[in-house]
């Protein structure tokens, strides 16, 4: 039995027919074609599918799509413009914080959610925010650097505004 | 070490990866992102027991379920072998918890999962064989009944006169070391999309380290010409040695697709991921080492028992790697090795990050510290004393044309403050060193080790580089673009890298055996030189000089003697393409190192041209109440020949240290009755952000005479050092040797209880 729901994703309203057991991850990827959010373990252990919902980093694999009605969902596709990467994305590129890139969208979203709330995080705050993510390639070392660089980029951007 | 700064404009500069913007925006496509029209979803029915006879397989209910398009059992697959000992779908017997029995394809994942549940398989459970020791007893049941014993493979290597060397040795130690099974934990789980809708073309999308092997094996198994198999390797979400070849799910997806006439995707769930493929099985080393009183090593004799799991796959290679590796790091008179690969009813193992060599390095490196203690020699001095050098030839005739091992050891020791810390740290803090060596490509898998490359230069001065080398994250495509850019005198961002499609890509053995930078890098350099020659002709005529006098640098071309008069590279390319002859610029190149695979009888020879070396110092702190080890700092030195891209080199060092820390301290598949008890990322403990150590990178450049611009590998070399360095640091901290990996809190506490009575390593 399917239900018609309206999801607000990256500022756009999408009317979709979903089975009540379908996760937000399935709907984002399979129905809305937003494949930037990758499917990792799909049981909430790796952080690969992290999206931002009402300002909080959340795992799309652990949320039912029907729960997300009326909430503001931001995916990796929603943070950069056509011309420019988001400062967090730019910092990840510049610092070499990307290797295979499978976990990257989720970690970028987790980092963005952190920086939105805590513009100047210290090491412990970054470690804690990223504790649920899982990067097998980089050892998270350059990711830590990238988050700090992103914080600088964002501050510089605000100054120039 | 001759370093000439400023000699290169691209090589040696820190370059963010070219596909960074694609990856960071989620635009990079991975296999699961591909959706084909009419695509079905497959699901595999797996054995719920470790060993048993199949009495009946009933698929009737699954076939009746609406939306099911194909059901596959041994009745369809017949004697289809997915490996030397592996029937694709089992008819009579299952051999591990997870063994493939049947498969379905349906219109969506839910229907496929439901159909898989509706297939009922009746089993008669049989007592499983769960350890190598049990498997080798006379009355153990045979895992594969057509074989004489449970020994899957045995290899012996005898280099030099080991008996004589041990007679001459003034001190001989024998120790046993065990490494427990672990898992690779790819963030991109196993996944395949197969399109075999038409009988004469099979296209496979899958994450892989080498398209060539899967392409050749698929062609052979399906009786198709190799050119009818197209492998699409878009991006690979982690590989770490374990994605060199195809697995049963690749064949199953292809057969389902053939039967249904539609493309079929199989995405492994988290629950399946620990069943499909695991890292290394249990390694048990019995190590005997002979040494003189002054610390000069004489000989090593190793007996290795390796748990193969239910099927062999390519693990016979692990035995050989280990056998060779034990005589590659320190000078020895002789080396003797006996390795046995033994079937059990554990899941089939393959390679874990760093292959079995990491396990061997842990054993050898740990024993070396015990020897240092016996002889009262500093572990760093003992290593420097015995370290191999440039132009050294090992007992098996492996030869080093470049070698920065001693420099790595000395620098890692000095930068970590070894002398001030060793034996001078407060209780429960420790410091330890580990060293490693690994080859950059080489022969053995085949008679050749070839990579080819093609580069087109367009009228806008931009180039398109075609390569068959997959980039699993190591940054090889960026490194290849840098090599091409340096050679053509343009910038890496002027180069577009096209890879991952065997219908387009040039021949390449792939990203295996640390061969990418060295072998494909040489091919790319050749291709770029070829393209440069083609452009040089027109440019030389324009400048009125000989082509050999030209310099290509920073997007311009000029004569060496007259650097003031330059032609933009773009113009040089344009005038070549749009000359009256109407030329095109396509550079071709290939590289196959002029070496020979080792002799199959004597096992002697030098299969590779380049070998890289490393040394790492670990500093740890042990909590005596919980047994938890905290890795505080790693000082990491690696001889990469020349760093093409130091930013990427650091990334490789970081990742391997982190993964090596996982193997050293956390990662273990806890087994019971052939089943993994901790098959999720929550229960299978692996390092995350709270475990990040302080890292100190030291890039040693020995400038290899054969490498492209002197470069060697940074593939799986660094991880060779990590586990032993950490293990030695923990032993140093608690004053008791640790002989098992991983060094979990339980094992630390057990060792602490022991160390209360005997203190071996500390005064």
Approximate shape of chain B: globular
Strand order of the largest sheet of chain B: 3-7-1-14-11-12-13
CATH-level-4 superfamily name of the largest domain in chain A: Beta-grasp domain
CATH architectural designation of the largest domain in chain A: Roll
Structural class of chain B: alpha+beta
CATH architecture of the largest domain in chain B: 2-Layer Sandwich
Radius of gyration computed on alpha carbons of chain B: 27 Å
* Oligomeric state of this protein: heterodimer
CATH topology of the largest domain in chain A: Ubiquitin-like (UB roll)
Summarize the structure in words.
The complex is a heterodimer of chains A (161) and B (763). Chain A folds into 2 domains: 2-77, Beta-grasp domain (Ubiquitin-like (UB roll), Roll); 87-160, DNA polymerase, domain 1 (Orthogonal Bundle), CATH 1.10.150.120. In chain A, strand 1 (2-9) and strand 2 (12-19) form a beta hairpin. Chain A is α+β, with helices and mostly antiparallel strands and 161 residues long. In chain A, strands 2-1-5-3-4 form a 5-stranded mixed sheet, with helices on both faces. Helices cover 35% and strands 17% of the residues of chain A. Chain B is an alpha+beta fold and 763 residues long. Chain B has 3 domains: 39-126 and 191-267, Aldehyde oxidase/xanthine dehydrogenase, a/b hammerhead (Aldehyde Oxidoreductase, domain 3, Alpha-Beta Complex), CATH 3.90.1170.50; 283-443 and 599-755, 2-Layer Sandwich (Aldehyde Oxidoreductase, domain 4), CATH 3.30.365.10; 450-591, Aldehyde oxidase/xanthine dehydrogenase, molybdopterin binding domain (Aldehyde Oxidoreductase, domain 4, 2-Layer Sandwich). Chain B has 20 helices and 31 strands. In chain B, the strands form 8 sheets. Chain B has a 7-stranded mixed sheet, with helices on both faces. In chain B, strands 9-17-16-15-10-31 form a 6-stranded mixed sheet, sandwiched between helices. Chain B is globular and about 85 Å long.
